[in-house]
Design a protein that fits this description.
The chain is of the alpha+beta class and 125 residues long. It has helices at residues 36-42, 74-88, 106-115, and strands spanning 2-7, 10-16, 21-22, 49-55, 64-68, 92-95, 98-102, 119-122. A hairpin with a 2-residue loop joins strand 6 and strand 7 (98-102).
């Protein structure tokens, strides 16, 4: 017996006794065999342009250099963040696919990314 859940595009199978229980809404496979999260975690969809900007919003006036749009997996993004922090001589973090480096280091970051072969644009003011 299968139970369906309605959505604007039609209906999606959410449970099947034949397939062994809950079904993934993304791929339709049983949850135990679903590979959707692995596929999403590998490479984020980007337009191929790395954008470097400077932000102070939500940081009590402290500025950070923000790098967005790098098409790397989580481990690669962490390694790139470490390289950029070392090149700038500053601290920072990698959160939600975005590299944040403390301080205004846009020119250093752009130079380092171009040297690695990335297409880079300076975003914001």
């Amino acid at each position: 017996m299968a139970t369906t859940k309605s959505n604007p595009a039609g209906s999606t199978l959410v449970y099947s006794t034949e397939a062994g229980g809950r079904m993934c809404p993304g791929c339709g496979a049983p949850v135990a065999q679903c590979r959707c999260k692995e596929l999403k975690a590998r490479l984020p969809a980007t337009d191929g342009i790395v954008r470097v900007s400077h932000e102070t919003k939500g940081r009590k006036g402290k500025g950070v250099t923000v790098v967005k749009g790098v098409a790397l997996d989580a481990a690669g993004l962490t390694a790139l963040g470490k390289q950029l922090k070392t090149a700038c001589g500053s601290g920072g973090t990698v959160k939600d696919g975005v590299i944040e480096i403390q301080g205004d280091h846009r020119e250093l970051v752009i130079a380092a990314l171009v040297k690695q072969g990335h297409t880079v644009k300076r975003a914001g003011g």
